[in-house]
Amino acid sequence: MPYTTAPAVIWSAEPDRRPGTPLVVALHGRGADEVSFARLAPHLPQEATAAFVRAPLAEGGGYAWFANRGVGRPLPDSLAATADWLLDWLGTEAAGHTSVSLLGFSGGMAMAGGLLLARPERFAAAVLLSGTLPWDAGLPEERGRLAGVPVFWGRDVADRVIPADLVARTGTWLREDSGARLEERRYPGQGHGISLPELADASAFLRRAWEGAA
């Protein structure tokens, strides 16, 4: 179903400080919200503007990006509705920013992946953390779909929250078929979460991506 209101957002910068900065669209995990995810703001590049967006579907005391048919398996119509909603919002909010990048964790990684697969040309880079791409959701996934897009993929191989078959499929496609400029990092002992070393690596990656696009 279409969403008729703009998303709730916590911004890392006041409106007068946003123009001329890179925009990072930060998508929280399933059952979380933008308030908890905004705690990452001090650990992201301070020269950028981060938009911590609330997902549209109430779930588990928080919010979800799409209805599921199992962990990591979005219903195609639900994922498409949220993608259209976010892309419409970005059509306005991206104005004045030098670029738009994605950062998604867990269910937010699947949503970020959905946006990236749908419209790769709109994004300067993507940080994908502890999740899977949204397979079998009706999105384009042909070889070379992300040609030249810088993609950071961080995870702990011992994380068992996301089904192993989806993680393996994601890794194979990102490495061999996507065409992305992939930076893959592993963080033993991190579990299904985000660590400070991972955030430091992701921030450095984003800066390199933005410098490369200059």
TrEMBL record:
Keyword Repeat appears in the UniProt entry: no
Domain Phospholipase/carboxylesterase/thioesterase: 16-207
InterPro entries registered for this protein in UniProt: AB_hydrolase_fold, LYPA1-2/EST-like, PLipase/COase/thioEstase
UniProt keyword list: Hydrolase
GO function terms (MF aspect): hydrolase activity
Gene3D superfamilies hit by this protein: alpha/beta hydrolase
Homology family: Belongs to the AB hydrolase superfamily. AB hydrolase 2 family.
Protein name: Phospholipase/carboxylesterase
